[in-house]
Amino acid sequence: MIKISNPFAESTLTEHIAAEDFVTIFSPVILEEASALFHQGNVVLAGTPGTGKSMLLALLKPETRIAYFRANADFPVTQPEQRKFISAGINLTKAGAQDFGHRLAVDGIAGEKPIDLTLFFADFFNYYLVFDLLKNLETYLDGTLSQLQNEKGLHISAQALDQVAKKIASASCWFEYLDGIINFSELIKSIDRRLTAYRSYFNFNTDELSDEIRSSKTAIGEPIATVVSILRGERIIDNDTSVFIRVDQVEELYHLEAQYGLGSNYRQVINKALAMRDKRVSYRLGMRHYALEAETHVFGTASRLEEERDFFIINLDNVLKRIENQKNWRFPTLANDIFARRLESAGYFPNKDSAVRDVFGVPMPRDELAVKYAGKATERILDLDQDWPVAWKDFLKDLATEAPLSAKFGEAWARQRGKADVTVNIPHKNEHPWDQKRWWVKERNEHALMLIASKAGQRLIWSGDIDLYELSGGNVHVFIAVCRHIWQAWLRSESGNTVTHQLPKIDFSIQATGVYDASRSWFEKVIPHGFNGSSRQRIVRELGEWMVKRMATDKAMSNPGHNGFSITEEDLANDTELANWLNLATGFGDLVTRPHTTKLRDRKLRRKWYLNPILSPYFRLPHVHTKEPIYTSTVELRKVLSVTSLIGEVKPQKRSASKSSVHDDAGQLNLFNDNQNNLGKS
Amino acid sequence: MSTPGEWDVIGAVSFEERCNGTLETMHKSKKIGRKLFFRINDQPSMHSEKIYEKTQAHYVVAQKLGLQDNEICDLDIMFPAGVAVFAVNNFLSQSNGNVILDISCLPKRLFFLCLKLILSNKNVKNLVVSYSIPESYTTEPLALDTDPLSTLPLFGPNEARPSDPQVIIIDVGYLPFDLKALRAQFSSRIPEKVLLPFPPGPPSFQRNWRFLLDIFGEAETQVIPEPIRVDARDVSYAFDVIDDITCAGTLRACLMPFGPKPHSLAMALHLIRPGNKNQAQYTQPKAYHYDYSIGLKRMNDMPEVYGYCIKINNKNLYE
């Protein structure tokens, strides 16, 4: 039966998806790029929101595995040795990591020193993970899960857990805190008591944290590794059963540090766990790029984390982003699979290999699109120079009635350096010089369409499978949002009123409406809701409008790549304030960045930025990235962004000692500068 | 220590004119005892200059109403709780037992904290919470750069491993937030209840509905729960409604105080009630519009200030 609802209305957010629904919604396509997740060794899953970090981590959760088992569905990991794992985890947001800032002493006022808070956090982290692991093991006492126990290499019974509890409690890593425990239930209670004591203290329900706790703080990573050792020694876990430690929302620590000026100690603590390279456990960290890149120091040492040695990164943005060779681009396969699964859940019977194309078709050919934009009054799309010969103007006007895109190319061609003779030597029909230059045309298609739509007062149109994949920028969350808005536009339309079992073919105009709705919603609702969202939104607005202006006034289409900008790494390194804002916006997916091979003789290393493609419809800016971006500098960028009030036109040389905090930029810097402390301002 | 019959006042020196409503009202009665007024420093923003100017102007008025320099405590908007706890506990330790908490201009992360400390302080025998009404609110965005959704200071999870709530209660206001971020934290389809301030006058009405549309899905993709209409200034009724929804506190609820302060007060009282299993989640703005609220509404030339009796003669009326 078909539901009269939107198959894409449900959130893509993992925690919101019940484990039973996960079984039907999760697409295994992404696993092909993330197989390291099930191997030994530490793995960092890095990516912007919506790239699937939490989804992949959820695959390691016992409740997910049990849901697959109960649904008699194939767990998406096929290799038997890779299915042999158990995990413990902490979601730092949900676990209340932020609360550790509440007891910070400021200006000598009663509270804890930053270093002590860090050690408390490490201890809390340790106990939380052990608690989670033990509770997860307890789950398998359920007799109906014995087959799953076998598959995972677990040998759990109530008696075995009671016996192992004594050994765990007597381990030296607890500094005698768990001494005297005689069974599993007592062990759980004692750990619970310690975690609750932390809760009480940080909620100010009690004034003191007991000496018993203060004097028995555990070393980061040691308790969970010890417990796993004991569980293996007691044959509760097979030696070849992997133990994964899930740590999600690591950026929460970055926010905590920034909020209270705590340096980067909390992330360093997690780094230390990774740096141990303890073979007993393998960490799986989910984080946004900025939380890792800004801090690789290891707590209490002078060393830094090293990629490949201490951990592997699965960069989900890179895995799914658009690449030159479209055939090797993984995202369309993933998006198609997710799309088909959603439709199946809604009662449709899509073709799994072509569902997106079946519903949305292919993008409209660019020349047809130009005809749509131009409408009947084709002359209005041209921007003719007064000085041009009448014959040339008439030629373009005439051409515009049949082929507005070609006419626009002709107009630009005449404005290009050394090509003005075309206005005198008017080409014959079908012998246009620009048509001979395939790459010249290809690079300018989107720019020309932008100018045509602008002159005709039309909104740019995106439709068809490839357009939608590209607008999603390799982000599943964006893709689902685009589909949701298109489907909603379709439901509002006349054709959407008729409920049938047939998969709809959604008209391009409805798609265009949905795409615009999705884009506007992304700019107006999604961006402002995140960390420093209003500020990031202002930055995106100014950058977007700046690039639109550059392209809209480029009548010669000399710079079709000016929907992006490029800065030297050197320039950027000298302006950390600006770099931090760009990095933050990139970390949240408002901007996308990649290294840029310069065309300049100086051969300096450069980096280029673009708006997230989903923002293109809102700004009426082409989403296709072509050569060359705007070669800019931090000085120019500061001018562009100075209207946001976030960044001055001039880079601050040193911080002013202003008398009033409202005129002081310290708070702003504090968001990014780990050594700043903006507390106690008056 | 204040003399018997006087009331100690906790409030704010703010860019909102209504910050002096309670002081002005009480000034004529000459029953003001000691004072603790918080001056909150927002994160620097495009509104900073005007915020500073307006705060200074209201401070001058407050001084004429008896506020002294040593009665002011400066705090950053995202203060570590310990600093505020120290200031409030220190103040309460010398109280004669009569306390007025003026929540009109205190950010929610501070007013919730104050209320919890006051109600847990054995010195306090009588507590009245006051709330001043402004003439209007700006039609522009009220706040900037909201913090990610998190628990309020002193109201973090109490359990070792936090359980999912059994119901989510959203109080509707002017500040939109990302409901998806909340859902990201919980693993099941938890029923959502919405409290809607009623009766609202336009433009509040449209604004509240826009808020609802904003949080319950883009492009009308989701069904908005039928709102429970609660008078914007009726604390006890709001408290009772929450009580009904949570089956007298037996259901674990996640409270989201995005609505008018009196509703938030009701939520805070629920959270403080002994044995409660609830938690609160909020996205604290880090900077506000300088015209967040405009003016101070008057009736018969007196500020329109509401007083809510919370604790009388050592009896907490909301326990």
Overview of the molecule:
The complex is a heterodimer of chains A (682) and B (319). Chain A is of the alpha/beta class and 682 residues long. Chain A is 46% helix and 7% strand. Chain A has three domains: 34-241 and 253-320, no CATH class; 361-526, no CATH class; 530-651, no CATH class. In chain A, the strands form two sheets. Chain A has a five-stranded parallel sheet. Chain A has a four-stranded mixed sheet with strand order 7-8-6-9. Chain B has 319 residues and is an alpha/beta fold. Chain B folds into two domains: 7-138 and 292-316, Rossmann fold; 148-283, no CATH class. In chain B, 29% of the residues lie in helices and 27% in strands. In chain B, the strands form five sheets. Chain B has a seven-stranded mixed sheet. A six-stranded mixed sheet of chain B has the order 8-13-12-9-10-11, covered by helices on one side. The longest helix of chain B is centred in the N-terminal third of the chain and has 17 residues, at 48-64. Chain B starts with 6 loop residues before the first strand and ends with a strand. Chains A and B meet through helix 4, helix 7, helix 10, helix 22 and helix 23 of A and helix 2, helix 3, strand 7, strand 8 and helix 5 of B.
Features of this protein?
heterodimer; A: 682 residues; alpha/beta; 3 domains; five-stranded parallel beta sheet; four-stranded mixed beta sheet; 7% strand; elongated; disordered C terminus; B: 319 residues; Rossmann fold; seven-stranded mixed beta sheet; six-stranded mixed beta sheet; 8 helices; globular
